[in-house]
Amino acid sequence: MRGYGSGCGWGPGGFSGERVASAMRALLIPVDGPSAVVGVADGGGGTRFLRSLRSLIGAEQVERFRVTDRWEFWVDEDGRAAGKAVNEPATRVARDFGVPFSFLGSVVVTGVDDGAEGWISLAPGQVDAILRRVAQAP
User: Fold this and answer.
1) How many helices and strands in the chain, by DSSP H and E?
2) What angle do CA 44, 25, 135 make, to 5 degrees?
3) Count of domains for the chain
4) What's the chain's average pLDDT?
5) How many CB atoms lie within 10 A of CB 7?
6) Considering the domain boundaries, does residue 136 fall inside one?
7) Which of 46, 54, 63, 100 is 20 to 30 A from 7, comparing alpha carbons?
8) Residue 101 counted as domain residue
9) How many CB atoms lie within 10 A of CB 28?
10) Which class for 122: exposed (0-12), middle (13-18), buried (19 or more C-beta within 10 A)?
11) Average pLDDT value for residue range 107-129
12) What's the confidence (pLDDT) of residue 120?
């Protein structure tokens, strides 16, 4: 677990709608409603990347959890204190991979940090596989 946000020197704020030259493909899994492929600004892990994640999740600080060796969940670091609801679809997907706890609020799924370029886009096949798991009945 690693938190990112105002506690790490980045102040709160949402994605401002600025034009992004390159967006990383990610998947938004909301508590209610359909999941959607989204673009996350600058997968290199900079300020725009974090602002984009905070805006999508609706959080001042975000935290990541590695669910597999190929993708990670980004969540509201203060989801419990903020009273966010359990995200049943995201929790179900994570439990399929051995993660024993519940996720709260909206979740953004990204590829992992490759150590050189930062976080990588989810491949279309990864998106499809995650969406199939999200759609499975509990």
Assistant:
1) 3, 6
2) 135
3) 1
4) 82
5) 11
6) no
7) 100
8) yes
9) 19
10) buried
11) 87
12) 84
